[in-house]
Write a structure and sequence with these properties.
Layout (H helix, E strand, L loop, with lengths): L13 H15 L6 E2 L3 E2 L7 H4 L9 E4 L6 E6 L9 H7 L18 E8 L4 E7 L2 H4 L2 H10 L24 E5 L2 E7 L1 E5 L4 E5 L2 H11 L6 E6 L3 E6 L3
Antiparallel strand pairs: 1-2, 3-4, 4-6, 5-6, 7-8, 8-12, 9-10, 11-12
Amino acid sequence: MYGNTILILPLGIAPFVAIIVWVVFFESSAGIRKKIAGRFRKGITEYPTEAFMFLAHSIDNSIEYMGEANILVLTLKGPSYSNVTTVADLKRCLKSYSDNDGVNLDWIDEYVLMFIHKDKEAGSIKVVLSIPTSIVRSEAYIEHEIRNVGKVFIEGGYKYSLRYIPTNHYTNSCERKDGRLLVHIDRRQEVDGFLDVKTVLMSESQITRNIENRLWNRVKVECIGLDDEMYHGVIVDV
């Protein structure tokens, strides 16, 4: 007779199996924190700071780049977004955040709201955003995003109802030297662990990718040095 097989484990073994399943599921299901070739990690994808903060409001909110284009698509759920029609409306939705969160709401004034689609049935809106390249390539904006590289949300998931960014004191910086714009990134990053927040080291490829991603993929970044603590790179042609 063929059919489904049910495995019944002795009670003494079952708790240990449950723990193993828990670890495998929660540590691998995200697919964003696996170690690759030892010190290399795929890592969590980061986005421009102010747009990224919309993910804090709900674990149902999402952000992504539209295909190969360097424009952002936000999917936002909840009644607070039902009347959003302008950039100013989006800015008001983030009014509770400040420099303490690494947020400068003045940058939202530079956003270009390209399209809004409201889905009343789903109770969500899709917002398509862009920003002038001249803003992204300005040193002030680059410094703003560099300070936030590595800051990612701890997922709500089974522990929290909302996402949040853990407070850390890691120091990232920019400097102009010999005509080049250099960036220095602390490799430490706080992410979800099995039972609590854990600290990991970001890889070279992860940091390079996320600098470019935070800068709307309008610049190229090259790593010029990496040690156990810091990543050193150059913003190309800026």
